[in-house]
User: Fold this.
Amino acid sequence: MALSTLTAPPCRAAAITGTTSIVSPEETNFLRFVNLVLKRAPKALRAHFDTVHLPSNLVTDLATQRTTLLCLKARKVVNQVQLDTLYGVKNPVSKDFDVTLLICLLGNMSPSTPAPAGGFDILPNQQDISVGADLARIKFYRNKVAHSADAKMDTNEFNTSWTDVEGAIGRLGDPSILNETKILRF
Assistant:
């Protein structure tokens, strides 16, 4: 049969049966917040990391901190995949580091960022706007999103959480990242 004689089957509209599901306002809030925490916050972390550990000096910084990082692996703070990201490539770059690794490096490599009063795993007081507190904020909310059971945020929680993370992004990142967050909110 020649290709020119083949015809496509007629298109038919699929019948919709049952109820149609819509995304609730709480689910929309959650999805916006996920975008903020998983896409924009890491950019701000990297921007800050790159000011502390200049890309041109990163290989040297990592070499001088190798013992510290191997101790962190022994304590199961970092894993082999993360170490391979740092030492298994010729020229490591921060864009290849996940949020957990960036925060770990900032908190443990010299010059280290002091942790807030509760450490990097607890949501800090809103009045604490130190670099360590901003790292803890991003880590806390990233973990909250990753472990959400219902993928919903009511409006009050969304507004409070957004403002908290947006402030951290503004202090850690550059103005272009902060502008992206403002556009995403609504």
The CA atoms of residues 117 and 124 lie 7 Å apart. DSSP finds eight helices and no strands in the chain.
